[in-house]
Design a protein that fits this description.
This is Glucan biosynthesis protein. GO terms for molecular function: carbohydrate binding; catalytic activity. Belongs to the OpgD/OpgG family. It is found in: Periplasm. It is a single chain. By secondary structure, this protein is mainly β. Among the domains are: 50 residues, no CATH class; 97 residues, Sandwich (Immunoglobulin-like), CATH 2.60.40.10. 9% of the residues lie in helices and 40% in strands. The chain contains 5 helices and 33 strands. The strands form 5 sheets. The protein has a 15-stranded mixed β-sheet that branches. Strands 2, 6, 7, 8, 9, 10, 15, 20, 23 and 24 form a 10-stranded antiparallel β-sheet that branches. Strands 26-27-30-29 form a 4-stranded antiparallel β-sheet, with no helix packed on it. α1 crosses α2 and α2 runs antiparallel to α3. The N terminus is likely disordered.
């Protein structure tokens, strides 16, 4: 396939005979309408694309005014429900394609795969309803910029949105009963580096039509950017936990030193541990409130989120991690008091590496924001060794879009972190951390627990741990005096006779 794919790419590029005819656009023609598909064929195409210099894709030629549409106006352009692909075929899923407009101006090629044969999907103005937006001419030829998938997740009519791909390498999903929240990406490169972040993007999709009554949607995606080409395979199974198996093969054009695998991004504006002076009737505003890690040594870590005044980067060094994820642990509606956003229904996402990922670190970035529209929390796996130019690098992982991860620590879990002004004024702070476990309802089973608190910089005092049986919690309070430090790392775990009885609470205090 490699030689025939390269020949097809070359021929297509010559036929287009235009500066915008990128190798990737030509590659899409090498596996297009009427041709059989195989993962090997797609890998061969991705490999050949990576050997050519990167050329940015041509932006879509938009109808008048579409580039200035507000997001609310853009959302009025809706794929007609009766035109959704596979509607009425009992395939378990239906597809709706997304038009250009607003900030979504980069075309993507979309193909479906039916009985192993590729079928190109092309724009028709009749596919869409336009609301108050001026429709394009009837014969307009416009690109798609992504797609949505629908299934019978909460209702039997199959009208529940379960998967969205649109913009760079962003995608999102959810589980039964949830609302859309945090975003995943295919890849992150050079985040917070001096040379600036690079944004790889999915340029082409091949979506397999499920069999009758299907419960799995398989999507192949070709990713490209200045530094790397990649091929992805997503297998999505919606349910009480929506599971997405991801297979990735990357073909770097340069040595990739700062790579983010299985990246997640979410919003954290404020919560009881960090209100940041928020003058808001709501109790909290966030997609997620913590990072959980199950590291290669078997330790469970919980790191509450912050909205800092300056960029904060935290690295959790590990080898062959068992899992990590951004979680929304607080599921009480009255914790947020927002009947529109329903933050308590936002998904948690747990990443389960498949196979050995070697040495590296879970990296967390917390970026200052002053509104809830910007996603300021980033978490991903960063390999210790650079991904070499010219080589092929494969990874696999399982995403769990869930209410809580399928794997949970057999220990007490942190259910609340609160901070406030400490005694003595100045920068002193008081902390309150609640650990929860069923055994905490029985004082006899909870005897001998001790809070073990350590700190880097600053000074802690008045450490007190108390069992609250009626609430099944063990509450730890303490005071922190940062002294001259502008950053203090705190570590807290409950122990009995030197053995951990809780997950490890980690916290970074900054002014």
């Amino acid at each position: 396939m490699a030689s025939s794919a390269l020949a097809a790419i070359t021929a297509a590029a010559r036929a287009q005979n235009a500066p915008q005819a990128t190798p990737l656009q030509a590659a899409a023609d090498a596996v297009s309408d009427g041709q059989p598909i195989s993962r090997q064929a797609l890998l061969d195409v991705a490999r050949e694309v990576s050997k050519a210099p990167y050329l940015a894709p041509r932006q879509a030629d938009l109808p008048r005014g579409w580039g200035q549409l507000t997001l609310d106006q853009y959302r009025q352009i809706q794929f007609r429900p009766e035109r959704r692909v596979w509607t009425g075929e009992n395939r378990g899923f239906a597809l709706a394609y997304l038009p250009p407009g607003n900030v979504f101006t980069t075309p993507v090629a979309i193909r479906t795969v039916e009985s192993g044969i590729i079928r190109d999907q092309r724009f028709s103005a009749a596919m869409f309803e336009y609301g108050q937006v001026t429709p394009p001419p009837v014969d307009a030829v416009l690109p798609f910029t992504g797609f949505r998938a629908f299934t019978a997740l909460n209702r039997p009519d199959g009208q529940d949105e379960v998967l969205v791909f649109q913009g760079a390498s962003f995608f999102r999903s959810l589980a039964r009963g949830q609302t859309l929240g945090l975003l995943a990406r295919g890849l992150m490169l050079n985040v917070a580096e001096a040379q600036g972040e690079e944004f790889p993007a999915f340029r082409a999709f091949w979506i397999e039509r499920p069999g009758p009554g299907g419960n799995t949607l398989v999507v192949h995606a070709l990713l490209d950017s200045d530094s790397v080409t990649g091929l992805y395979r997503f297998a999505v199974r919606p349910g009480d936990i929506t599971v997405c198996d991801v297979e990735v093969t990357l073909f770097p054009r340069v040595d990739l030193g700062h790579v983010g695998l299985a990246p997640l991004t979410a919003n954290f504006l404020f919560a009881p541990n960090d209100r940041g002076g928020a003058d808001d009737v709501r109790g909290a505003v966030h997609d997620v409130n913590g990072l959980q890690i199950w590291n290669g040594n078997g330790e469970w870590i919980w790191r509450p989120m912050n909205n800092p005044d300056t960029l904060q980067i935290s690295a959790f060094v590990d080898q062959n991690p068992k899992g990590f994820g951004l979680l929304q642990r607080d599921r009480r509606a009255d914790a947020f008091n927002d009947l529109d956003q329903r933050f308590e229904r936002r998904p948690s996402v747990w990443i389960e590496p498949l196979g050995d990922w070697g040495q590296g670190q879970v990296q967390l970035m917390e970026i200052p924001v002053n509104d809830e529209m910007n996603r300021n929390i980033l978490a991903y796996w960063r390999p210790r060794v650079a991904l070499a130019k010219g080589a092929e690098h494969s990874f696999a992982y399982r995403m769990h879009w869930c209410w809580s991860p399928p794997e949970r620590p057999p220990l007490a879990s942190v259910t609340a972190t609160r901070t406030g002004r400490g005694t003595g004024g100045g920068r002193r702070r008081k902390f309150l951390v609640d650990f929860s476990a069923e055994d905490f309802g029985d004082p006899a089973k909870s005897a001998g627990l001790k809070p073990m608190l350590t700190n880097q910089r600053g000074r802690v005092s008045n450490v007190d741990g108390r069992l609250v049986p009626e609430s099944r919690i063990y509450r730890v309070t303490f005071d922190l005096d940062p002294e001259a430090a502008n950053q203090v790392e705190l570590r807290l775990v409950l122990e009995r006779e030197g053995q951990a009885q809780s997950e490890t609470w980690l916290y970074r205090w900054t002014p």
